[in-house]
Every structure is written in C-alpha cells, then in structure tokens.
Amino acid sequence: MKNSYRWLAVLLVGALLCAGCGSGGESGLGRIKRIYYVNNAETGVEMHEYEMHAKTQEEALEELIGQLETMPEKLEYMAPLQMGFSLLSYRVEDSILYLDMSAEYSTMSPTKEVLVRAALVRTLCQVEGVKYVVITVEGSQLYDNLGNIVGLMNAEQFIDNAGDEINAYERVTLKLYFANEDGTALIVTNRTMAYNTNISMERLVVDELLKGPGTDVADVAYPTINPNTKVVSVSVRDGICYVNFDDTFLTQIYNVSSEVTIYSIVNSLAELTGVNKVQISVNGESDIMYRENISLSTVFERNLDLVATVE
Q1: What is d(CA 209, CA 268) in angstroms, rounded to the nearest whole number?
Q2: Which of 45, 58, 166, 227 is most enclosed, with most CB atoms within 10 A?
Q3: Has this prediction a pTM greater than 0.70?
Q4: Tens digits of per-residue pLDDT, 41-57?
C-alpha cells in the first residue's frame, strides 16, 4: 500500500508539472506578454503585462491585436489601434508580419506615428515566429514625414531615451564605405547608433559619411568627403536617391581617388532598402565634372569592384 501511495504521489506531481506548461512547453511565465500603449502627452509608450491564453501563432496575433485595440484602464494612455485609423488586415509570411492600415493612418503627426509604430512592433514581435513587422497603408508602402519608405522593423529598433523624446529614437546599424589607407579602394565598416526618426535614413547615411570613420576603425578606414561640405538636401524617388551638396563638395582635401569618393556615397546609400541608384548634384546642378573625370550627370549604381578586404 505504501508503495502504491508513493507511485500515486509521483503521478500527481507529474500531472501538476504538466498542467503548469502551455502548448509547446511554454511556461506560465512565458505566457506573460508586454502590451505597449501610447501616453496622452505623446512623448512615449507605457508597458503593461498581460497573460496570454493563445496556443497558436494565429491565436496569439488575434489576442494581442485585440489588446492593442482595447483602451487601457488608465485614462492617461491610449490603445495604439484606437487612434483614428483601422487595421484592415494582417498576415505573416517568412517571419514578417504585414499590417495593412486604413488611409487615416497617414494623417497622424510624425511623433504620434512613430510612437504607434513602436507600440505595435514591440508588442507583436513577441509572437513566436514573428521577427519583423511591415506596415502598409491601404496596400501601399508606408512613408515617413520626409517621404522616405519605412521598411522592416523589429523591437530592437525602438529604444527609450531619457527626456521628452522617449521612443522618438530608433537603433540602427549602417554599413558605410570609407577609403583605404592609400585612397584607392573602399573599406566596409558597420556603425550601430541611435538616431532621431525625424531624420531620413538616407540623410543619416550622408551625415555619417561626412563625420568620417569612427575611432574603432581609424587604423584601417579613412574619410572620403571634405568634412566642411554642407548637405543641401537628400530625397528618394522611384528607387533613386538624390543627394545635393554645396560647392565645397568639389574641393577634395584628402588623398583619395574620385571614384572612391563617389562610390563611398553610392555604395553606402545602396545598402538601404528602397535605394537602387544615386544621383549626386552640387547646388542643384548635375551637369558638372567631379575632379575633371567623373560626370555627376550619371545616375550611379553600386560598385563593389572598388571594395578591398581588410587584412
């Protein structure tokens, strides 16, 4: 009898342990998800813990989206899917969650739109099998307030910043091309940084090129553009990035070839989603020869033949 009771106790303990596990071995703690809401001041997002009951990816998305559509108990926060627009549809393909919004989504202020994006991406990237989120507006690509395409997003892109601009910053890794020591080839470098989302990625790349390589690669990579150059404008249209400098761009102070300078810009910008070609101009004019051997009237494409391997 004693042995029977022992076995019964073991079976009961085993049953209790199994009961504490969710589908696929997910523990009770693992079922706690974070739902992000936008504060009424539109300066940040607020996280609330939520115990999810779904067992499949589809159920998880439906449940979390339902929470994002439900106004929180605290009136000082707003549900990101109750901000004057509608979620028309969603689907998952190859670990990418596509959210299609109604036209009203585009009428939000730039700051509010970034906060809504942060809340949606942070919340929904918790679903198993969802690595990235893409937002479209009635089937068309989403553009930021500067007219640049907003592409793949993941939770790590959105960071907290102390002060009044919480979550107005995103973390990004740029692939930038600088010169090698003798200025005859390009060196690929990576730069991870936080940037203000009011600045387009294309403008960010150009600004970072003007700053030159960081101290971490100073022994192998060298600047390519006169640092006194002013950026007049940067825009993207139909896959072409238009970069307009002032005439200081024509004055080269570094010992680098003209091809290295041009393609440090072109290759760096071509690393961005939505940029296939680059047109460079000076004070709005492209009918100019750069250092007498490269016509800026050319629409440049990526050139990896100039890239050298760092030994």
Answers
A1: 8
A2: 45
A3: no
A4: 777 888 889 998 998 99
Residue 153 carries which DSSP code?
Answer: B
DSSP codes, 179-224:
E-TTSSSEEEEEEEEEEETTS-HHHHHHHHHHH---GGGTTT-B--
Statement to judge: residues 138 and 206 lie in one domain: no
Question: Tokens for 98?
Answer: 């596509």
The answer to whether the beta carbons of residues 130 and 122 sit under 8 Å apart is no
Q: Look up residue 75 and give its two tokens.
A: 């009136």
Is position 17 within any domain?
Answer: no
| Distance from C-alpha of 273 to C-alpha of 153, rounded to nearest angstrom | 12
Let me know: does 69 contact 79? Beta carbons within 8 Å: yes
* CA–CA distance, 21 with 144 (Å, rounded to integer): 42
DSSP state letter for 62 = H
CA-based radius of gyration for the chain: 25
Residues 57 and 77 in one domain: yes
Tokens of residue 151, six digits = 């592409």
Question: How far, in Å, CA of 53 to CA of 290, rounded?
Answer: 63
